[in-house]
Known about the structure:
By secondary structure, the protein is an alpha/beta fold. Helix content is 24%, strand content 27%.
Amino acid sequence: MEQFAARKLAGPICLFMRIISGIHKGRTLQAPAKLPVRPTTDRAKEALFNWLDHRYEFKGLTAIDLFSGTGNIAYELGSRGAGSIVAVDQHAGCCRFIRDTAVQLALPITVLQADVFGWIQKATSTALLVFADPPYDHPRLPELPDLVLQHGLREAGGVFILEHPKHRSFEQHPALTEQRVYGQSVFSIFEDNPEP
């Protein structure tokens, strides 16, 4: 089991999440405090979904949520009408919480407990939206854009979004089309297939 200090919240642990829009709009969820996670903040999540809302129709959308953690992004997608969501995380407690919450909210989330890097290399799933929020200090974080794009997880016309800390830069990556900064977090958006 991989755990990294950057996934732990400083100070008092409070793992509350709010669903911003859709059928569960305003619903607050609380994850077990012992989970080794750093959920995407409400502010950053709202900004991300505002961007997505102008690009995609959520109804029926296919999505893959890598390093799903508490399932924060997966629930938002499901609430907005996504048709199929695959949530991948290595931590058994995270997977259990996502699975239980998906059942409680009747959301179309398939939960897979697996090492994300190994799963990517063997995956047969594809999606229009692929999102990854790895631990900020994960030593293999820089590999993710190439792994996701070269192993065909993203469907034609789709997007890969990587959340990462500000000190990481992907500005020279040939598939990078946009970066959005929210506090100490950056969403790097990849849309073009890099040359092999």
